[in-house]
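Fig. S4 source data, part A: sequence.
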Amino acid sequence: MNQDFNPLKSKQLFAHPERLSKESAWNEHVPFAMLLVELQRPRVIVELGTHCGVSYCAFCQAVRETGAGASCYAVDTWAGDGHTGPYGGDVYQNLKAHHKQYESFSQLLRMTFDEALQQAPDESVDLLHIDGLHTYEAVKRDYNTWLPKMSERGIILFHDTVVTERGFGVHQLWRELTPSFPHFNFEHGCGLGVLAVGKDQPEAVINFLQTANANASTTRELFSSLGRRVQAEIVLADMGEEKRVLSPLKITCRNLCKLLLLRSGFLRKS
């Protein structure tokens, strides 16, 4: 029996991320990434385009903390592309050092997406994050070639769904795909699209999507606020003030979430 999604029952949504980066456009989506692992409990996670690893390490951290038992694979050449520009070997080495704690269930695959595709069995991937070259042609090809690899529980994440300049074409593909699948789109942090391509989604995922779409503005405000909290941690850490400020900020974050839900009618007073 379906029930409304209640974010206050989540542990991962309010967890402290262990890897963030000033250079990453993904920081603000880390709370949702960790929540999604908690809701879906994927068996196989694949990320196409990892760069410094903020999103990928959020998935790995949540897998470890929830005991989901997933096998995780990050696919990237770590050489850069037309949108990120080239980057040196230090990016990969820095990620590799942090990633060492996840090596029992995770692999960094330094190869092209096509090379990784040959290693993935059909209908095996529960969670796929597409974040490679962002032209329309490139992201559509990534989607089309990896779709047969998605399981009956498959979810695909698309980053940069609201970016329309610099030749980004994710927004166009997103508009084409959403009429065919249950979905939700976050508009902060350059946009993050959640596309449920599998026909047998876990009840927790169904509850989230139904609740999010029925309360779209509140859901977006909630996750945007949580994302700004993460971004604030980066700024404060950079300023050397995290010890003085972050502790009360973490305490008030959950209270802020509860207040937003009460004001919107999303949650009733007990």
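Fig. S4 source data, part B ends here. The mean pLDDT is 90.
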